[in-house]
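Working notes for the structural subgroup meeting. M.R. asked for a predicted model of this chain before we commit to crystallization trials. I am recording the input and output together here so anyone reviewing the notebook later can reproduce the run.

Input as submitted:
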Amino acid sequence: MTDPIATHDARPAEGARTVLLTGVGRAGQVGEAVAQALAARGARLALVDLAADEVIARADALRAQGHDAHPFACDLTDPAQVDATIARVHAAVGDVDALVCAAGGWAGTGPLDASDPAAWHRQLAINLTTAYLATRAALPMLRRTRGAIVYFASAAVLPGGTGAGMAAYAAAKSGVLALMRAVAAEEAAAGVRANAVAPTSVRTAANLAAMGEQPGYVAREEVAATVAWLCGVEARAITGQAIRLGN
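Returned structure, recorded in token form:
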């Protein structure tokens, strides 16, 4: 895949200048809104997703608006692919100021005794392993920029939540929170911050198709605004926190 030429370099002081965003492929999902919010703040974007055609389409749409976006196709569950892709990101855009781990997906797995082990492993892979591998590969850049990491957890794994009927997803998102806290503690001396957003159900195209219109959705633009804020210098005093979004 050929990396597009940068076309936009407006960089407000309050925003992260260069952001690596995983899980941005499909239209109508949270990653698309996060990319739009970051681009609106002047960020140069490195967009990573499994589906090459989808991530190219998202980058094309952003570039059509005058933003600077570089697409990269990668299986984020494969360590070798992740390492190679992060090297390509660095060659294209230099060190990144922030990493947003939005790759993942929800699946109900039913009662634990009737669940499919393959579904269990897939939920851990797409939600937790992707975040771990992206973090591991990007940390050298983030140390140099004293950057920020934003993870995606879930309100279901915060106090008062329940993983009933979705134990695999809940276990994966609990792991994401544990990963975030470990990174926040380990990287504090290097100036790297790590936080997580933990929304309730988000109003995405996929959720609307699966569950229809219902009260209580969090707008994906609201999630995106919080992520963009956590990436920026306004949130430089915040690390190791999970921010719940929604009722």
